[in-house]
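Hi F.,

I've been meaning to write this up properly since the lab meeting, where we talked about keeping a consistent format for the predictions we share between groups. The idea is simple: the sequence comes first, exactly as it goes in, then the structure tokens exactly as they come out, then a line or two of notes. No screenshots and no reformatting. I'm using this chain as the first example so we have something concrete to point to.
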Amino acid sequence: MQTADDNDNDSEHHPQGSDDSAEAKQEESSQADLTIEKIRKFAMTPRQVKNYLDRFVIGQEDAKKVLAVAVCDHFNHIRFCLENPETRDEDYTKPNILLLGPTGVGKTYLIRNISRLVGVPFVKADATKFSETGYV
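Output, unedited:
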């Protein structure tokens, strides 16, 4: 019969568990380093981002312009803060965007392509699963 103390010391008996944890932390650290490096190298203008989106999405000109400006502003601000750590404490409001429109107009497709361009993960959540029909 094992006691609580025996369970706490399982890592001594199974050293692979601690290696996996260290390996996972190292992988997270290297992923973070890659992300920071991508941000440092981000040097696109809103026009370049919009031109990229034009290759994939027909129409939605206003949405493409707003998204391009917001993405460039956000990434340029992060890059500026990485280069000038003393500016991190300054008040900054990140531009958030709420895309509204009927099904099939390209909302998800726009964001998926921007995330691919910038090199960040794309995560999609469906709120209709969490509410009654007709509320979302």
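Notes:
Residues 1-15 have pLDDT under 50 and may be disordered.
Helices lie at 4-8, 10-13, 15-41, 46-54, 61-83, 107-118.

If this format works for you, I'll send the rest the same way.

G.
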